[in-house]
Write a structure and sequence with these properties.
With 96 residues, this protein is an alpha+beta fold. It is 33% helix and 31% strand.
């Protein structure tokens, strides 16, 4: 019984850990997205970083704009600690 409860708890943590904050407005027309990395292992997850950029690109492209990175902070996963990616960005006119 305890094993089932522990497995249920682990599954809940995995599902909630990989959720994004979504696009959060900041000052001066800048935005932020934060996302915990739920992939097992140590080090940096390139998938997590790519997902954050996809979300930012989707947000800006809905406005007919493109992403300009202001700051990105990627923390690698460590033993018993999930990694994370935080992206601060602006939406700027598309340049050709």
């Amino acid at each position: 019984m305890k094993i089932k409860m522990l497995l249920s708890l682990v599954m809940v943590l995995v599902v909630t850990a990989c959720q994004s904050t979504g696009v959060v407005p900041m000052e001066n027309e800048t935005y932020m997205i934060g996302k915990k990395d739920s992939s097992p292992g140590l080090g940096v997850s390139l998938n997590n970083k790519a997902e954050v950029y996809r979300e930012a690109n989707d947000f800006c492209s809905q406005k007919g704009l493109s992403v300009k990175t202001i700051n990105i902070n990627v923390l690698p996963a460590k033993f018993a600690k999930l990694g994370s990616t935080e992206l601060e960005f602006k939406c700027i006119p598309v340049t050709e």
